[in-house]
Amino acid sequence: VDDPKNSVDFGCKANTGLGKKPLSAVIKEVCDGWNLPGPDNYALQYADGVQTYITESGRCAEDLYKGIQSSDSGVRCDSLKELASVSTDVTFAQEFISRDGHLLLVKIVEDSHEYVIVMSLSNTQCFMELMDHGIVSWENLSSIFIKKIASFVNGKSSDASIQQVSLDILESMVLSSHSLFLQVKHEVTMERLIAHLQVTNQQIQTKAMALLMALLQTAGDSDRQVLLLSHFQKCHFLLRNIIHSSGSVQDEMAHYLYVLQSVTLNHLEPRMKTPLDCYSQEQRDILHGLRQAAFETESENSLSHERRRSLCAKEFKKLGFSNNSNPGQDLVRTPPGLLALDTMFYFAARYPDAYSRFVLENSSREDKHECPFARSSIQLTLILCEILRIGEPPSETGSNYHPIFFSQDRLMEELFCVCIQLLNKTWKEMRATQEDFDKVMQVVREQITRTLSSKPTSLELFKNKVNALNYSEILKLRQTERLHQEETLAPPVLELKERLKPELLELIRQQRLNRLCQGTMFRQISSRRRQDKLWYCRLSPNHKMLHYGDVEEDMENPPIETLQKQIPVADIKGLLTGKDCPHMKENKGKQTKEVLDLAFSITYDVEEYSLNFIAPSRTDFCLWTDGLSVLLGREMSSESMRSELEILLSMEIKLRLLDLENVPIPDSAPVVPKPPSNYNFCYDFSQTEQ
């Protein structure tokens, strides 16, 4: 019915054989009976077409309902095939389901022993098409049906088309309710599902991955942990059979790979959000294990308590902890919490030589040039958590997965081991001191981000690429990008900006005045009242009066007539902000910095009186102070105005230069040629062309 003309043509051709009163005749009778003007012929034909469409849908549903119950297997197969072609139509689906046709399909699956029938059903996906309309609930399906569909997935000899539609049906069941999730999880063999990922059929791979992700996302934390540890911890087959397959990874599969990566990495979130417990003996032992692995010390048992305590504090300082006497305090901040301790311990245990070399190398440098291992490790762990988006739920549209994830069992820890050595290398290249710590971390973040964006498929490839991207290369890339962006700083563009500024400033002024006309609700802070008094202020539409008055809390936008007090704009003498406001001076020393930043006042009548404001937010403060400045004939000066002006200028410049993309803009205007000696080259339009 989407195309009226097609509906009319269809209705005109089919309506003659209905043998029922056409809908157009009914409409005419109603209009005549109620003395209403009748619709035109086109509308009447359209109505007949709709009637025919619905009637034919019901007739077709009835025919197919009978056809799939025929004793002739050929008729049943043909009916199922035709059912697949019309099941996408919602009107037909309603007619077919109203006859319990979907239950008939369920029964065919439950009772079928004929391979041809099952194959036809699976190939055409009629059941799936009908259920996709959401007319009936998935929960109405029997456990026998679920077992039958699961058997198609678990069976090795099933046809690919049967497996594909069965995987699709099971995914919809899992996502529809928790009870169906439990049934599907009980019936489907996980080993067989993972085996489907190793086939060459991309459709089977995608549908199997979709079901696996549905099971993972619907499962509780404990079930999800079991699934990940038992089946997904080794994902090398995904890298080999999907990412490295001959065909490119499709968008849907890319999304499922991203979801798997996100769900797996998010199991580090509890450690990331748990601070170190200074009273935990296990965690204290790990800290001292880091110290002992870095420094070869004599037996500490023979030392006195004070001597041992002094030695520990000295060695923890060399390790880079800021709190020497209690290094656990450095790991209280979350994130990264205990995850930073885990990554440091993993590095020390997995790569002891590299760990000792890092610590001892920096211990021998001057204090200001040493790279603090502990502080760097904590910050690097936080950076990796942000880059890998640990703790963020997977997006419904995300598809940005890292192939390297599927080549490593412990990606976070292995990346840390590579990047902490990279950090030490970059520190030396930058000849950094303790004051340059944040700059070094910014460069390291950029090195990691740029390297991961190139989609390395193995840790070794990542290591080679990230080490090749040294500090000098980062500087070159930054310079190239800066030059590319600074094309908008050419003298002609700057001149264009200056010409555009007055027009855009006027636009901002009008917006500020319009905002003042809308008005704002303010709170009047009073030390004698437990609840602040509410009042409303707004500018009159002609911009000549400020109207204000007390209001109730439930009044969002009171009419201007209800605001009894008013101040002529012509009487306003000045605008005060912050601590210069009279109501801030009265409560000097009692107001917080936050309140001071939101306070402003206007003085009027030879500066004898003032109207005092405390804005609800910084945005409202900027809007009102700008608007009042415009009324007083002054320049707007808020940070909001500067930000908006810059945004508007940037947008306007980009629009103006859109046609000049990749065209170099000269610093100076081209030379205008000299005027011609005469202008006798105009065309005479008065002569009629022959």
From TrEMBL:
PROSITE patterns: ELMO. GO terms for molecular function: SH3 domain binding. GO terms for biological process: actin filament organization; apoptotic process; cell motility; phagocytosis. It comes from the Eukaryota. InterPro entries: ARM-like (IPR011989), ARM-type_fold (IPR016024), ELMO_ARM (IPR024574), ELMO_dom (IPR006816), ELMO_domain-containing (IPR050868), PH-like_dom_sf (IPR011993), PH_domain (IPR001849). Keywords: Apoptosis, Phagocytosis, SH3-binding. Residues 282-452 form the ELMO domain. Involved in cytoskeletal rearrangements required for phagocytosis of apoptotic cells and cell motility. Acts in association with DOCK1 and CRK. Was initially proposed to be required in complex with DOCK1 to activate Rac Rho small GTPases. May enhance the guanine nucleotide exchange factor (GEF) activity of DOCK1. This is ELMO domain-containing protein. It comes from Sphaeramia orbicularis.
